C-alpha cells in the first residue's frame, strides 16, 4: 500500500476514522533522521497492507503537528480504531519495527471457556 501524504487535519482525521489500523510519520524535509527513516517507513507500507501509512511533513501540516503534540522529528504515532496506541519519537528503527509488528497482529480471539461455576449454576 502506498504512503499517503496529508497536509490538513480533516484529511488526516478522515483517514484515521476509515482505517482500523494506521501509522503516521510526522517528519520534515530538512531533518536528517527523518530521511534515514523514510525508506524504512516506505518498506513497511509495502509489506503490511492491512495498515494505512500516513506521511505528514510538519512544514506543510503545522496544524496537524500541533494538534497531535509533535515536538520532535521523526515522530511515529500508531492508531488502532482511531485511538493512539503507541508513539515513537526519533529514528528508532527497532522500536518502529516492533510496534508495527504488534499493530499488524490480528486481535486475539475471545475466550470461549465457560467457567465451571456458570456451568453448574444452570
UniProtKB/TrEMBL annotation:
Ranges for domain Thioredoxin: 1-105
Keyword Disulfide bond: yes
Keywords carried by this UniProt record: Disulfide bond, Redox-active center
InterPro entries per record: Thioredoxin (IPR005746), Thioredoxin-like_sf (IPR036249), Thioredoxin_domain (IPR013766)
Active site: residue positions: 31 (nucleophile), 34 (nucleophile)
Covalent S-S links between cysteines: 31-34
Record site feature (Contributes to redox potential value), residues: 32-33
Site note Deprotonates C-terminal active site Cys, residues: 25
GO terms assigned for molecular function: protein-disulfide reductase activity
Coiled-coil regions, chain positions: none
Entry-linked Pfam families: Thioredoxin
Membership in a protein family: Belongs to the thioredoxin family.
Name this protein carries in UniProt: Thioredoxin
Organism: Coemansia erecta
Biological classification of the source: Eukaryota, Fungi, Fungi incertae sedis, Zoopagomycota, Kickxellomycotina
Gene name, Swiss-Prot/TrEMBL: TRX3
Amino acid at each position: 500500500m502506498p504512503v499517503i501524504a496529508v497536509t490538513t487535519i480533516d484529511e488526516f482525521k478522515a483517514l484515521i476514522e476509515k482505517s482500523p489500523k494506521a501509522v503516521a510519520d510526522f517528519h520534515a524535509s530538512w531533518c536528517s533522521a527523518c530521511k534515514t527513516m523514510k525508506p524504512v517507513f516506505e518498506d513497511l507500507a509495502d509489506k503490511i497492507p492491512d495498515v494505512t501509512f500516513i506521511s505528514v511533513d510538519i512544514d506543510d501540516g503545522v496544524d496537524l503537528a500541533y494538534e497531535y503534540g509533535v515536538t520532535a522529528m521523526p515522530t511515529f504515532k500508531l492508531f488502532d480504531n482511531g485511538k493512539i496506541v503507541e508513539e515513537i519519537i526519533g529514528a528508532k528503527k527497532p522500536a518502529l519495527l516492533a510496534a508495527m509488528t504488534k499493530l499488524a497482529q490480528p486481535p486475539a480471539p475471545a475466550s470461549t471457556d465457560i467457567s465451571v461455576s456458570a456451568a453448574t449454576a444452570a
